[in-house]
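Q: Give me the 3D complex with fe (iii) ion.
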Amino acid sequence: MNKDLIIGCHVSMNAPDYYLGSVKEALSYGANTFMFYTGAPQNSYRKPLEELKISEGRQLIKEAGINEDNIVVHAPYIVNLANMNDLEKHEASKRIIANELIRCEAFNVHVLVLHPGAHMNKGEDFALNAIAKALDDIFSKLPQDNHVKIALETMSGKGSEVGINFEQISKLISLSNFKDRLGVCLDTCHVNDAGYNVFDKEQLFEQFDKIIGLDKLLVVHVNDSKNPIGAHKDRHENIGYGEIGFDALNSIVNDERLKNIPKILETPYFNQLPPYKKEIEMFRNGKFVPNWRDNI
Ligand code: FE
Ligand code: FE
Ligand code: ZN
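A: Here is the predicted complex, encoded as C-alpha cells.
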C-alpha cells in the first residue's frame, strides 16, 4: 500500500464545524489532502472567515501530519472572467476571485482552481485575452503578502468553454504578466471529453510537457467519465465505472512524475453515499476491486 500517495477528494464545509468538519471528512476517507470551496460552489456568498473554525481545522491538519501545501480550494464556478458584455458584472467577477485568493491565504492554502471561462460567441482569442487581462488586474491589486497561485483547469469543451486544450491554456498563461502565479489543474474526465486519449499516458504527458510544461502542473482531478473520448460533456463517473476505467487512471495517479502533485477525486456519490474511501484505497493499493460500489 502506498501511503505516501498524495490523494484526496473534494469535501464539504458546512455548519457547525466548517473547516474542522472538512478536515475530519477528508481523514475519514483515508485522504492526506483535499479540495474544498470556501462557500457554496454555485454562488459568491461567503461566510466571514472568523466563523469557519479555521484554526481548529489547521490544528487537526497538523496533528494528522497532512502537508498543507497539498490542499486546494476550488473557485465558485459561476464566475466567467471572459464575459465582457456587462462591465459591472465583469468587475464583480474579478472581486469574487480576488476575494477567494485572499480567503485561501487565510486558510494557508496556496492553490485556487479556476475554470478559465466561456467565450459566449466572442471567440476563443477574445476570451483568452479578456481572462489574462482580468487575472493581471486581480494579481496586481492583491496584498503583497498573498502568494496564492491559480490553477487553470483543463475543460471538457461543453458550451463555449475555453481552456479546452493545452494550446489554449498555454496561450492564456503566455498572455499574462503574472506567469509565475499561474499553473494548471488537469482533470482526467475533462481531457477525455475534450478529445485527449487518456489511455496513451506517455503521449498525453509529452504533449502537456511540450505545450505547457509539466512544471506548471499543480493539481490533478481524478475522475472517470460517463462519456467516450471527445464527447464534450463533462459528466464525472466513479472510478472504474466509466469510459476511462481504473487501469488508465491508476497509471496516471501512481506515476512517479506526479509524485508531489495532489490528486483529487470529484466522483459522484453513489446511493447517496460518498465513494471516496474505496476509491482512495484502490489507488493506494494500485488494484481494482470489481463491483466495489456494492459495498460502500
Ligand atoms: Fe472544476
Ligand atoms: Fe475538475
Ligand atoms: Zn467536471
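A quick observation: The pocket of fe (iii) ion (ligand 1) is lined by residues 74, 113, 115, 153 (CB under 6 Å).
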